[in-house]
Amino acid sequence: MLKRAFSLLLGAQVLFCATLRKVELTEEPNYARVIFTLSSRVKFKTGKIKYREKTLLYVDFYGTYPGRVKSRYYFENPELPLIRVSKKDRRRLRAVLYLKSLRKYRVFFLPSPPRVVVDIFFRGKEIPLLQQLGLKVRKIALDPGHGGKDSGCVNQKLHLQEKHIVLDIAFILRSLLENDGYKVILTRERDSFLPLERRTAIANGQGADLFISLHINSSRNPKAKGIESFYLNLAADPEAERVAAKENETSGKTLSQLGDILKKIVLNEKIRQSKAMAATLQRVLIRELRRFYPDVRDLGARGAPFFVLMGADMPAVLVEISFLSNPEEARRLRDPLYRARVAYALYLGIKEFIKEVEGK
To answer: Are 184 and 318 found together in one domain?
Structure first.
């Protein structure tokens, strides 16, 4: 009897090696992001089936059991009123999304904690890749990095935190862009924590044409200094990997797990435009800041695997504005005038990129 019970227990461990811990929905107009949080990485499969007049999108999680999640999740969104979770068979747990309509969807994985993310674009939703290459920029999403419990890099001596500096720069930059008639979306407007996947969901949901994430750099080497810009790609050098690992900390450092996803992403036209925007912002930042600070070091524009850029449906870049770990650059970052000059240089860079893509 004991031997048989042990065999059954061992069999259960083989069949079920993970737990579905949480089901969350982020909603924006004509767009939704569903996040399935798991206890560990699992194999999963997605597909569509028609049920009466509805479209059912399912996600099968292999070797997974439901844990304490509910069997049904009801939402007030008429496009996605219900998500049902149940065992499909002895090997699979199935989550079914009941959709009124479906234009496009995509599924990707994020580690630490393990999450399967489902982006859903309802019918009528225009995906804003520079207005589907109509090359008109109307909405710009600014993402002040970190926030809340995530301070980013810190300079204890000068009592400076990255999260406050980038929010200040974002406010100035927003005012400059709004004065030119652009609609500006801030992913956060106060000192609040925002998961990385939520940041691009906000930009996607509000139909942003550009996404710019603002950060401050840091290094164990106090002599490291300069400004650099990044677009989403597989990191080509150890320094780019270091910066990406630093900014990815709240979502995990297992970058190797994203290889297959990123190889597909780099083939997208979005990456070509992102690379061009990163190069333009970097060039203008260096040009403008050297007018006042001749020793500003140009660290270039490079590709790297940043989680915060991964879910964006528009050209997206991440800018690392000086090193808080460098004594001289930390003093500059404390100065409101330096922050204003950085914001103005970013404004000129954005305007120059828009001029390039719109052919004006």
So the answer is: yes
